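Protein Record: Sequence and Backbone Structure Tokens
======================================================
Tokens: labelled as protein backbone structure tokens, with as many entries as the chain has residues.
Question of interest: how does this chain fold, as expressed in backbone structure tokens?

___
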Amino acid sequence: MDKQRNLFVGIIAFVLLSCAGWYFMYFSELNNSLERMSDSYNQLKSEKNKYSQIKNKFPSIEKEWIGLKEELTTLINKIPTDAQFDNVTKMLFGLMEKNKLTVDNFNPSLAPLDEKQIVVPETQETLIVEKYPIDVELRGNFIDFGNFLDQLAFTNYYLTISNIQISQNPIAEGEQKISFISYIYTKNSSAASMGLIQNNQGYASTSSNATNTSSSTNASTVLTDEEIIIEAIQNTGASSIADIVKVIKYFKEKTGKDIDQSLAITLLQKRLENI
């Protein structure tokens, strides 16, 4: 009887030990592995949901990108070429006169203030965009100046205005003295720019030879700056203050030096008054 009981207790103990060993040696590891797999599944599920949200945003992102690309294309189309610089200055000056603003100073710079390269999205063409400042001083009232700014926003060219300063004119009651800087942007392709540089170099060489020949035959003929400015006004056909750009370019090409812009404007104004 004692042997059977001992045998039963031994079998029970063996089964219990076997179960305990199986749990600690196999089931525990299997349970840990299952937990790791569950964590990985939850992580993958979270990432899948994240990517699904990003995928759902693709149409709106694509729409926004198309809108930005169209805005850039429209902006590039509104930027005039180098050859249209005179047309833009005439348009700006004429717009001020149209709104009954008296222009006291209109001084465009021939040297660009800044230069940027942009790539056209559709053609991948590289454009060089240059920024030219124009110092403007005028007289008028707020309403006329406001109309000028409104109309400027709807022109065919891209222009910006900054540093607007307005003060009361001490001489005329109800009239304001207004000054600002307008920026004209011009564009040309990088390839065309390189060709223009080469052409300018060739032109400079030719001009140098022509100047040497001319100086040897006409050494006795020396024109003053005032005479050259008057000659520039006549030869360029300047008919408004906006044409001062043509006069400045003519003087620069003729003499190779910078013009006295105040003198040029004064002479041009006298010329226009006599017409």
Remarks:
- The beta strands are 102-108, 114-119, 126-140, 159-168, 176-189.
- The first helix runs from residue 2 to 78.
- The radius of gyration is 40 Å.
- Residues 223-275 form one domain.
